[in-house]
Each structure stands twice: as C-alpha cells, then as structure tokens.
Amino acid sequence: MRAASVSDYRELARRRLPRIFFEYIDGGSYAEETLRRNVADLEAIALRQRVMKDMSKLDMSIETLGQKLSMPIGLAPVGMAGMYGRRGEVQAARAAAKAGVPFCLSTVGVCSVEEVAGCGTPPWFQLYMLKDRGYMRELLSRAKDLGSPVLVFTVDLPTPGARYRDVRSGFTGASRLEAALTQAWDGITHPGWTWDVFIHGRPHTLGSVVGAVKESRRVTDFLAWIARNFDRSVTWKELDWVRETWDGPIVIKGVLDPEDARDAVKAGAQGLVVSNHGGRQLDGVKSSVSALPRIADAVGDDLEVYMDGGIRSGLDVLKALSLGAKACFVGRAWAYALGAGGEAQVARMLATLKSELAVAMILTGCNSVRQAGPGLLDRD
Ligand code: FNR
C-alpha cells in the first residue's frame, strides 16, 4: 500500500512492527478516552470555507524561539524510536531537518543526543525531571554543548499512567522468559523489522541515559529505571536550577490548565506545549485542542504556545493555529511513518501535512499561518 494519509502510515506500521512496539505507539492510558478525544475534538471543528480570494501567495513559515521553521509543525519527543526504525531518531531528525522543521529528541531515545546531533542539526532536547539531579545536570550540559537550541521540559509525567495495551502485548510486566518468547515470535513474524532494526539497528539501549543505567541490557530495563526515577516532588522552583545549567529557551510540555500556563510564565519559561501526552497519562482529561483557547487567552504573547495531541492532518494543524497555537507537534504521525519505512516515509508524511495545510489555507482564505485566527472556523 502506498500511504496517502497518517492513518495509512499507521496501518503500514501495524503490519511491519512487532506487536509490542505498535501497541506501545498506538495506545493510550486506561480506557483511552483522552486519546480518542484528542482526535475526535479536532475532527469536530468545522473550518469556514471561503472563495474568490487571491490565494496565489501562501506563507507557511514562522519564527519561533530564534528559529525559522518552513511550516508550523515539529516532531514531538517520542521514546524508543530506534526500535521502530534502524537508528530511528537519526532517520527522523534527518527528515525533519530537510523539511525545515524541528525534531525534538526524547530523554528515552535509543539514539543519544550526541548521535542525533552528529547528523548535522542539533535536536531540540526533551528532558524529564529525574530523581538523579546530577545525571540530569550532566544531560543538560551535554545537550547544551552540542548546540541544542531549545529545552523541552516535560512536566506531565511525575509518574507513568497505566497503559493496558502494554501489559496485554507483553511489553511490560512479563517475566524474562515470556519476554524472550514474545521477542522470538515477533522476530519470526516480522522479518523486515528483524533485519532492519533487530540485527542492524544496534545497540538497543537508551543512548542518552545509558551511563546512568549500567546494570541494564534490554530497552525495557531502561524504561523500568526511568519509571523508578520520575520525581513526584517537582515544583516550578526546579526551573531555577535547570536554568543554572541551561541558558537557552525552555518550553514546558504538558500544560492543560490556564493557571498552570500562567505559572509557567511566572517561572520564566519561553514556551509551553498544551498537551496531555497524547492521551498516555491521566485518562479522562480534556483534549489538547479543547484546552488550547483558554490557555492561549491566559498567556497572550507572554510566551510561545504550541499544541500537540491528535494532529493527524494539515487540516488539524490549521484548526489548532486558529485556536491560538503558534505551531503544532506531531507524535504518533511520525512514529507510524518511521515504523512504516524510515526517513523516506517520515519525509513523505511531513510533505503530506504541508500540502494538506496549504489546501486548508487556500480554501479558508488564509494567506499566512501567522494570520490564522478564530475567523477561519465555522462556529454556527
Ligand atoms: C510519546 N510522548 C512523549 N513525550 C515526551 O515528552 N517524552 C517522551 O519520551 C515521549 N514518548 C512518547 C512515546 C510514544 C510512542 C508516543 C506516542 C508519545 C508524547 C508525545 O511527545 C506527544 O505529546 C504526543 O504523542 C502527541 O500526541 P499525538 O500526536 O501522538 O496524538
């Protein structure tokens, strides 16, 4: 199948990836209410069709946090991408750089920040608050020294939400024997992945944190270490010491409430991502897009407001921009594309989002993404 849309990439990834990884990408927490809402609430928004405007010129570029982006889209941090494609973070970072959009590297990426920066464009760097502050400080200075332009500080994971699909697939909670049997079966039934990732995509460690997790060999051991290391005691004060090591822009990822958004401004952040972690944390919370307008109102121009969660097309991007986002991040969309076929498919997926955004702009009479606002929506 030749993929035409994000849902096609999802189907291709489902066929190519071992079940444990497909379910890990695709799933959300608990009953997956919020995961569904993220998508459904975007779908329910109606764009306002306009005709007979001069749409010969279109400007999709934005400037944000000192960077010029070719379109208001970025690749959200997604853990373990190196298990979905051979050295997956590097492949996705290359596709993003060629498309002129940012790639944000997860703390729990298979490829280290050094490996990704080595491909030419230092990534935005995502960090979780870990109990091991010494190691965090070390990670921050490594990313800074490599030239990462933006720190994305994820705050909606003081503890991991329960993901039922990961238990059912045997990804979490399985004994070593069960895990080995699952892996062997996955290998036999997914030969393309076995050749590309399992054999040629090594090492399968979490590159940026490997120094802190000396006793571990398997990716799941690293995830268990991370899960034990999430810090529930974290408050806004922690940004003070983060800033001692990191003097660049800081984006707070995982804000869903206007009061928290105002606190992010007070704490001196330069940006925030309206996000519920793609419906992977507290199930039952509202969708990102429904939280967005009040947050955008609450902070005005005090910082950059981005959004992620449920973006599956360029049309969704324009809807989010109309409701106050400066740019959108996509998580599953690029993880599916990577799983479907590596860098080339991530590049095609980004090109698809761009052309869909162009069509949406032309048919709503929007010449520049910077002018997107509520007037592009039909609210009757
Ligand atoms: C994520 N997300 C995420 N966020 C983060 O800050 N650090 C991380 O390591 C990860 N890892 C991760 C793995 C996978 C498989 C997924 C699907 C998501 C959340 C991600 O950055 C983003 O918030 C959501 O993916 C956005 O929702 P959509 O685009 O997937 O609907």
Could you walk me through the main structural features you see in this protein, from its secondary elements to its overall organization?
- The chain is an alpha/beta fold.
- The chain has a single domain (6-367), classed as Aldolase class I (TIM Barrel), CATH 3.20.20.
- It has 15 helices and ten strands.
- The chain has helices at residues 6-16, 19-26, 33-44, 88-99, 113-117, 133-145, 164-169, 176-189, 191-199, 219-229, 238-245, 258-266, 288-299, 314-322, 332-364, and strands at 62-64, 67-69, 73-75, 104-105, 124-128, 151-154, 250-255, 271-274, 304-308, 327-330.
- The protein has an eight-stranded parallel sheet with strand order 3-10-9-8-7-6-5-4.
- Helix 1 packs antiparallel against helix 15 (332-364), helix 12 packs across helix 13 and helix 14 (314-322) crosses helix 15.
- It is globular.
- The model has no long low-confidence stretch (mean pLDDT 95).
- Ligand FNR is lined by residues 24-25, 38, 76-79, 106-108, 126, 154, 253, 275, 277-278, 280, 308-311, 330-333, 335.
Provide the descriptors you would attach to this structure in a database record.
380 residues, alpha/beta, TIM Barrel, eight-stranded parallel beta sheet, two-stranded antiparallel sheet, 15 helices, 10 strands, globular, binds ligand FNR
Termini Cα gap: 39 Å
Count up the helices. 15
Largest sheet: 8 strands, parallel
- What would the average pLDDT be, to the nearest integer? 95
Low-confidence spans: pLDDT under 50, at least 5 residues? Answer: none
Bound molecules: ligand FNR
SS content category? alpha/beta
Q: Looking at the structure, what is the overall shape? A: globular
Strand content: 5-15%
Rg is 20 Å
CATH level 3 topology: TIM Barrel
Summarize the amount of helix as a percent range: 40-55%
CATH architecture: Alpha-Beta Barrel
The CATH class is Alpha Beta
CATH homologous superfamily descriptor: Aldolase class I
Q: What pattern of helices and strands is seen along the backbone?
A: HHHEEEHEHEHEHHHHHEHEHEHEH
How many domains make up the coordinates? 1
- Strands, count: 10
Main sheet strand line-up: 3-10-9-8-7-6-5-4
